[in-house]
Amino acid sequence: xMTSLGNKLTAYLLLGVLAVTALDVYLSLKRTRTNLxxxxxxxxxxxxxxxxxxLEKTGSDAPEPYFVDLAAEISSLENVLGVVFYNRTGRPAxxxxxxxxxxxxxxxxxxxxxxxxxxxxxxxxxTAEHYYRVEPIVSSTGEGIAAFLVLEDVSSLTREFxxxxxxxxxxxxxxxVVLALIASVVIRRSITQPLRAFAQQIDHxxxxxxxxxxxxxxxxxxxxxxxxxxxxxARLEAAHQRLLAxxxxxxxxxxxxxxxxxxxxxxxxxxxxxxxIGTPLNIIRGRVQQLxxxxxxxxxxxxxxxxxxxxxERISRFIRQLxxxxxxxxxxxxxxxxxxxxxxxxxxxxxxxxxxGVEIVVELAPELPPIMGDPDQLQQVLLNLSANALEAVxxxxxxxxxxxxxLKSNGSTRGAVEMVVADTGPGILPNNLxxxxxxxxxxxxxxxxxxxxxTISREIVRSHHGEIWVESTPGKGTCFIVSLPPFEEIGxxxxxxxxx
Length: 500
Known about the structure:
The chain is an alpha+beta fold. The protein has helices spanning 5-57, 67-75, 109-115, 155-206, 221-276, 278-293, 299-326, 338-353, 375-393, 453-463; strands spanning 80-86, 92-95, 119-125, 128-138, 144-153, 334-336, 358-363, 371-373, 397-406, 416-423, 467-473, 477-484.
């Protein structure tokens, strides 16, 4: 199970803060206890010195008579448990009522009297802790004659110390909770969410999507990382596009090579057929025509001979198409007008099919830029496409021959000049669309289609640096588009044909 980086950082931060705070609280509590003990020590010292001075001012070398009154008075002070007076031998002479039957600290009182040096410290009685001070009493001659012990309870100190410790722990807990909330929000927004966005972007890159970018307006290291990451994505996208373009170019070159090899094989076949079949067909045709010129009594025989000539012409036309496809002649480029070519082809088909129920509509774009092309070859393309449209619509329908200017994506007026042939026929099935420009592929087997017309048309368009494609919806018709680059005269004189 993956642990969130934000949770780890929050935990590390809280552990660090907890360690530092705990050390600070420990030292603070230690100082507090020391200060409280110093306060108690100063208080006990003050009481002891006051009592000593009071006894020494009496001027008496026998202070014992004053012990009873002083013991009661000292015991009445706050936090003072009591007082014990010792005689010259170090034995307790008088003690406060509150100290009777209570354990006293073990002290060498005789040494205190002899050295006249006070002694103080902490004294543990069971679970209770007390502070004591033994003060010597000096006579007027400077000789130690007695001593007394002041015992003060430090339970108030302990209670105050415990209260401060609990308050410190609560402060630590509150601080940790506040820090956890702040750190969680800050780390999530500053680190976790940006890293999660980076991870998602890397996943998209791994899936081949290079167009997405990270949105960041930050000016810190995360923002700089996002900018560099977006730059890397842009470079990857550009490299990917170049790779796709190179792959597509390679595919097209391989496809063109296979097409060239196929056309070369067709050329060899066409040459062989033209020699092996063409000559005998011409002889047969000549003999049949001679028979037709004679008087043949039966119409049935005349129809039979006419059918033979028709099939011979069909075979001859197929061989000529093969030769045309295999022996492509370079176009004789001139400045020509597509409008004029469309107009002439429309006149030819209009004269033949006006009475057949087929409506032929011509829609020419005004001020259409000229192109560089071979008018004969382009007319052949338009004738092939128009013939296919007539066969598609049958005895009734509509054919539109049109021209138009397709603008470039940047709005430039020097786009592509297009020639369009649209019909209202039955359309082309989707599974046939990828194959209609392949040699020998035809959907007109019943009426003798050879499958070479569109192939020849495509080769002619490509030789003019153009493109040809088809758009078709079954039941609604078919539209062939021929796109050619417009002519841009750079300099010099260019021969113009009669169609320009």
